[in-house]
Amino acid sequence: MKQKNQSALPSNGATIGFEEKLWLAADKMRNNMDPAEYKHTVLGLIFLKYISDAFEEKHESLKKEEHADPEERDEYLAENIFWVPKKARWDFIKDNAKQPTIGQLIDDAMVLIEKDNPTLKGVLPKTYARPDLDKTRLGELVDLFSSIRVGDRESKSKDVLGRVYEYFLSKFASAEGKGGGEFYTPRSIVRVLVEMIEPYTGRVYDPCCGSGGMFVQSEKFVEEHAGKLGDISVYGQESNPTTWRLCKMNLAIRGIDGNIGPNNADSFHNDLHKNLKADFILANPPFNISDWGGERLREDIRWHFGAPPVGNANYAWIQHFIHHLSPDGIAGFVLANGSLSSNTSGEGEIRKNIIEADLVDCIIAMPGQLFYSTAIPVALWFLARNKGASPPNPPEGGFRDRKGETLFIDARKMGTLVDRVHRELADEDVKKIAGTYHAWRSLRQAQGPQQAQGLYKAQGLYKDVPGFCKAVNIEAIKEHEYILTPGRYVGFEEKEEDGEPFEEKMQRLTEVLSEQFAKSEKLEERIKENLKSIGFDV
User: What is the pLDDT of residues 139-190, one digit of tens each?
Assistant: First the structure.
């Protein structure tokens, strides 16, 4: 499903901090432009540079072939490389960067590219000629992105541009605050979701795909685990037209040939993939939306477990996911913490029905401040259509029969603050969370306390860890009135207020007490001897 194989990360100056330096340079040119508006200016240029570089790489290759025509359009289409007309190629743009007409030239380039590449129709920004956009700064931006060059065979600029595009998306999300949450899910959350469900092969679906981060991370997962990129196929849709265009560009710049529909569309009212049964669902739906048009969908076929309340779409999303899962499919998604315990407007009854249907595989309580759009903590839900035993696929080992069981993980204390308002999960945090889940559902589940506490190793086994993870049956959840808050089940970490582990503290205090008893006995003997020496009989 890749449009073109991508090489390893380049060595042409794209070291750690490269993206940050590029961002700082680009941000200086923003002047007084609103971040939400500037985003499209910058990302559109990165996209133009990407497809031009990919085209030029093939163009140079064809020039060296004896009977090939480097201006033959079909040569490019055969390898799923976008055709770039001469006046849309980056060298032409770069040569005219200092001209006052640069804005119009870029707009014309976008029009030409869309005309010759139907899959990009209506996707690219064409607002560079507008009077309020400083053409001098626009030319400086062109010069800045011209510094990312095609290197040798092992260092391709398109790999760097993919990283830059993703990095800039995160920075714009941060700059826009609440609005940024509409198009970007923080990378560490996406990584947890992907590492948990392990999309090795099959259909991956995201019905509220934003800028496509779930798809990009799924592709990375397959690459990192030596899988074949064609083994997964991508399906999604996005209701916001601006965000849908960002997604189309993001997938194109990563070389992902995904089906996200011919235009933006609302998943509830215009399901573009009605007959899709996905093997993996990854999603971060908007939290607690009240204006989702639920009153027009009271009898919808998707509401198998009960009609969701008109005033909150959380349980509409959950049932939409379930409806689109294949018989062995698994879904991982983000929801506000309230979804774990709410009983208003029938939500509690829907949750009970889903639990009783044995669909809830794992619930994770996440720390706050992970999102750019809100500081509230969220939960990750994992639903599995089939909790029965499975053969060893993926190759790390098959799944044991875990019917009637649910794993709870409390990760609220994880992550580190990267600034005053944002927190990120480290690689070790992601590995610990996903590894615990993998160990729990694995055929190699622990029978005793001999293995590392909840940590996954190549041959590791699972064990309940007070304060972090606990596997429970449906009866235990029923006793808690079908509330899914992990803190109710995992208990407390065995630590005193001073943070010292209980067992270590007890051992230390016992040793101190023994020493005091011994000293007390010696002191008592000395007192008795002194009393005898002055005539007292003791």
Answer: 999 998 888 754 333 334 455 666 677 777 777 767 765 554 555 678 888 8
What's the pTM value of the predicted model, to 2 decimals? 0.78
- Domain containing residue 233: 183-490
Structural domains of the chain, count: 3
CATH number at residue 327: 3.40.50.150
């133009």: which residue's tokens? 48
Q: Whole-angstrom Cα distance, residue 386 to residue 330? A: 8
Distance separating alpha carbons of residues 429 and 184, to the nearest angstrom: 21
At residue 99, φ and ψ (nearest 5 deg) are -80, 145
Residues 39 and 136 in one domain: yes
Nearby residues of 352 by Cβ (< 8 Å), 6 or more positions away: 482
Query: CB neighbours (10 Å) of residue 357?
Result: 14
The answer to whether residues 234 and 379 belong to one domain is: yes
Helix (H, G, I), strand (E, B) or coil at 189: helix
The total number of residues written for the chain in this structure: 538
Helix (H, G, I), strand (E, B) or coil at 527: helix
- Sequence-distant (≥ 6) Cβ neighbours of residue 44 within 8 angstroms: 106, 110, 124, 125, 128, 249
| DSSP output for 290-356 | S-S-GGG-TT-TT-TT-PPPTT--HHHHHHHHHHTEEEEEEEEEEEEGGGGT--GGGHHHHHHHHHH
Same domain, 46 and 133: yes
Distances (CA, A) of 262 to 40, 115, 270: 20, 15, 12
**DSSP run (H or E) holding 364:** strand 360-365
Please name the amino acid found at residue 45.
Answer: L
Query: Do residue 261 and residue 136 come from a single domain?
Result: no
CA distance 160 to 10: 7
**Among 386, 288, 272, 393, residue whose Cα is nearest residue 334:** 288
Per-residue exposure over 246-277, b if at least 16 CB sit within 10 Å of its own CB, e if not: bbbbbbbbbbbebbbbeebbbbbeebbbeebe
Using alpha carbons, select from 416, 418, 368 the residue that is nearest to residue 20.
418
User: Is position 221 within any domain?
Assistant: yes
Q: Are residues 246 and 189 part of one domain? A: yes
Going edge to edge, which strands form the sheet with 405-410?
232-236, 202-206, 278-283, 325-336, 378-384, 360-365, 405-410, 469-473
**Which alpha helices (DSSP H) does 375-418 contain, by range?**
none
- Of 308 and 212, the structure prediction assigns the larger pLDDT to 308
Q: Which residue has the tokens 């200092």?
A: 98
Q: Are residues 99 and 199 in the same domain?
A: no
What per-residue string of b and e applies to 419-438 under the rule 16 or more CB within 10 Å gives b? eeebbbbeeebbbbbbbbbb
Tell me the per-residue pLDDT of 281-338, one tens digit each, with 9 for 90 and over: 999 998 888 999 999 999 999 999 999 999 999 999 999 999 999 999 999 999 999 9
With respect to residue 430, please indicate whether it lies within any of the assigned structural domains: yes
Residue 415: inside a domain: yes
